Amino acid sequence: MSATADTTTGGNSHVGRSLRRKEDPRLITGRSRYVDDISLPGTLYVAFVRSPEAHARIGSIDTSAAKARPGIVAVYTGEDMDAGGPMPVAWAPPGVTLNTPEHYPLAKGTVNHVGDPVAAVIGIDRYAVVDAAEDVLVDLEPLPVVMDMEEALKDEVVIHESLGTNKSHEWSLGGGDVEAGLREADVVVERRIVNHRVSGAAIEPRAVLAEYRAGNLTIWSSTQVPHFLRNIVAALLGISADRVRAIAPEVGGGFGSKLQIYGEEIFCAWAASKLNHPVKWVATRSDDMATMHHGRDQIAYVRMGAKRDGTITAFHTKIIADLGAYHMLLTPSIPSFGGFVMSGVYTFPAVQTDVIGVLTNKFPTDAIRGAGRPEATHMIEVTMDQMAAELGMDPLELRRKNFIPPHNEPHETVIGVVYDSGNHEGTLDKLMEHVDVAGFRQEQERLRSEGVHRGIGFCTYTEVCGVAPTRVFGPPGFGVQGGGWESGMVRVNTNGSVTVYTGTSPHGQGHETGFAQIVADRLGVDPQQVEVIHGDTATGPEGLDTYGSRTLAVGGEAVARAAEKVARKAKSIVAHQLEAAAEDIEVRGGKFQVKGSPDKAMSMAEIAGEAYVPLNLPEGMEPGLEEIAFYDPENFVFPFGAHACVVDVDPDTGKVKIVRYVAVDDCGPAINPLLIDGQVHGGVAQSIGQALYEQVVYDDQGQLVTGTFVDYALPTAAEMPSFETDRTETPSPTNTLGVKGVGEAGTIAATAAVTNAVIDALRPLGVGYIDMPLTPMRVWQAIHSDAGPRSTEQGRALDEHGGGAAGSGPTSPTEGGAQ
Amino acid sequence: MSTVHVALTVNGERHELDVEPRLLLVHLIRDRLGLTGTHVGCDTSNCGACTVHLDGEAVKSCTVLAVQADGAEIKTIEGMASPDGTLHPLQEAFWNDHALQCGYCTPGMIMSAADLLQRNPNPSEEEVRHGLEGNLCRCTGYHNIVRAVQDAAKGNVGGASAHPPGMSEQGRENIEALESGLGA
């Protein structure tokens, strides 16, 4: 696909190229440094003693045997920590009062989920501390547990005595008259849609190294958010933030689960200052499965109304969200992020989202790739297919009938969210270039006669990303005590090479390459001459890190603006040197040249020479060649797309196989198509993982059943198809690059496409609806249940019984009673 | 705790160390020899991030005791490129094809892929996918990894010296002849 030419770059066309990544040489040769690869002299190791109970009162803790072991330096409990808590909730949905239980890096008084840390053992060897942790004797008095979120709402067992209720909060966002819309409708579809709990499961487990020297704390962490970490460590430990340096070195994946401040990070920082030794903790996978925040875990009661002709009249969702035992950094906000896109890509005249947050004895949920928007999109897009079936209408025709018309200027939805630009017909038309639906239907008929059950499913989505405008995310909105801007700093070095500092903090995305391309075009240099520095609060300007697909749309824009400032100064220097007007200088062919006179030109190295040996600069110009830009967007950006999935379902085993997956995404003009495709591949795979395989399961006593990668079914290469990707490019009017975000698109779109495909395959077998994860057992049970496809009335009856796989009877015991 | 004397060769360099009998090979490689390119991603031998070659075969070094490697030849990701810095064809292919994002699984993935190509120099897509089942990646959806392994096998890595690992020029010629005979 051709890239959009950037007219401002004067023919330097690094933007839009599939440039292979600048990051990769160190990564493919084993020369990179993740946290656990960093060693400091005298480092001590930490092992945490974790609760085996889901809910218990902490009695005595006997640490004497552990302390007596050779090589053990200290053992701490919650009572020993004289600083470091309670852990903060940074973002709360606007306008709500939260019931927030206190929690600390080491539990105080009670434990409220399996894995809650009750003590920490510190010693000179990473094996010795694990041995010693076994010797810490903890007296736990078990308390009643509540694992089912709807049970928890009854408050028969109250987890946190101080709150007196398990209800965290309620939040609503709506527009139009939903009840009137449902009354006007000819058909109303009601479903109970379960979006189960998942793990981010980055392959690098969490790791922290903290060092305290002469009043200065340095903390290396496998985190997405070093700037947040610096601020929160400083606040919790009572250290001035300028004395704290947080570094995210190479980070081995995040997927939202490292958009968090973990108690283990705070503990290591505290212990390093207490012991005057570097302190390191590296999570095991079991640690991460139990105590790295989970995602999703919502039950949605949806109601959609439509006229016979397919005009949707109203969409209402009541979301019950299982927040787990505590509020972490964004926990209560996640379902609300879904509420912002509950109009989908449609002109629904009435939309209402009502969220109820519930506390249970599980680990907290928080942002996992997509954060609320995958759940919302699943609700909308699965319900659209359910409605199409009720109406006897083609699902794509139903979508097209309700699409927001193409718009290059902002479009306000009925709930007041303003989409920047969109062309949903366009992405769907592009998808249809790859998918011959009519031909598929013929093939499907033929295969059915041979006993092969093939189905096709679609999802047309939009999402809100590019977090964030301060006016929405700052103190008046989500209550973040800061802004939503991002910074970029561009320094031309004395030899004409360029160093870029960004406040965003990557964990695999390719910032160093994409940002280098943006800067290279603006400064007439090769991307190989542009180094991008990130993830260190002691270098470059203030920043706000990486999450919510904000890197390019916010961070990239800031970098582009800083580069433009440098280019303007460079043009003035060149104009002065070559006795031309600054307006007549353009960047072309790797030089700053006088328009129309290629022989009158200066390279960046020559310009840098003049800037740093300031003997002949324009009157009054400061020496040097570096600029900073801060960028606070006016609005979010709203990427969108159309995905199709083809599956085969084996009715004898219930096994689902992905036959094809086609993704058409629009994230504005491409900076680097290679990186975009990579993000889509990974996002779709993660979402297919949720749809078919992955599930965090607790039993009814709160024991984590999926505590390792043996039990938590992360997809392997053998389960994944090859992906087909394509794009359309609708520029965003929000930023000058026109870019949107693409990091979360795949996870937002794919669960609905997969689920719709499976239902399409199963309809002739009497299955009209089924919840994820679409495991063989669940699919088999759905096929072999007596209940036929659900009409509206049947749906209601099943809803009252809380059926997981509707029309399929109870879910299997091995799938857990309390997910 | 008592220790055991272990002698082994890692990336061509001989090492003799005294280790705890329970020390895992991956910790010997990382913590004692400082070769931190080999990673640890799970506790259950599922993820494959720790994959190295032991006497020419891929093993998960979190599942091998250091004492079991006594006398062995080990190769890690740091030993894959030539001493002059020329990348191994798989490294080159991973780079060209954007077969990595966060890079954490990459060393293990490359070591497993190299082992696969030694056993099967020209694998089909299906064979690559099954061959890499023991290595988990969360970033790429495996799409570009599979492509990179096949590109490395075919020598599609852009460099004149690019040829599959462990394959002689004669072997490559044989495969090319076979492919052309099959009309591939």
Largest interface: A-B, 59 and 58 residues
The separation of the N and C termini of chain A measures 43 Å
Specify Rg of chain B, calculated over alpha carbons: 17 Å
Overall spatial form of chain B: globular
Looking across the biggest beta sheet of chain B, what order are the strands in?
2-1-5-3-4
CATH fold-level name of the largest domain in chain B = DNA polymerase, domain 1
Shape annotation of chain A: globular
Discrete helix count of chain A? 21
Q: Largest beta sheet of chain A: what is the strand line-up?
A: 3-5-1-12-9-10-11
Binned strand content of chain A: 15-25%
Q: What are the low-pLDDT stretches of chain A, counting only 5+ consecutive residues below 50?
A: 1-11, 788-819
What does the model show?
The complex is a heterodimer of chains A (819) and B (184). With 819 residues, chain A is of the alpha+beta class. Chain A folds into 3 domains: 173 residues, Aldehyde Oxidoreductase, domain 4, CATH 3.30.365; 185 residues, Aldehyde oxidase/xanthine dehydrogenase, a/b hammerhead (Aldehyde Oxidoreductase, domain 3), CATH 3.90.1170.50; 355 residues, Aldehyde oxidase/xanthine dehydrogenase, molybdopterin binding domain (Aldehyde Oxidoreductase, domain 4), CATH 3.30.365.10. Chain A has 21 helices and 28 strands. In chain A, the strands form 7 sheets. A 7-stranded mixed β-sheet of chain A has the order 3-5-1-12-9-10-11, with helices on both faces. A 5-stranded mixed β-sheet of chain A has the order 7-15-14-13-8. The longest helix of chain A is centred in the last third of the chain and has 28 residues. In chain A, 63% of the residues are buried. With 184 residues, chain B is an alpha+beta fold. Chain B has 2 domains: 76 residues, Roll (Ubiquitin-like (UB roll)); 93 residues, Orthogonal Bundle (DNA polymerase, domain 1). Helix content of chain B is 34%, strand content 14%. Chain B has a 5-stranded mixed β-sheet with strand order 2-1-5-3-4, sandwiched between helices. In chain B, a hairpin with a 2-residue loop joins strand 1 and strand 2. In chain B, helix 2 packs across helix 5. Chain B starts with a strand and ends with a helix. Chains A and B meet through helix 1 and helix 18 of A and helix 1, helix 2, helix 3, helix 4 and helix 5 of B.
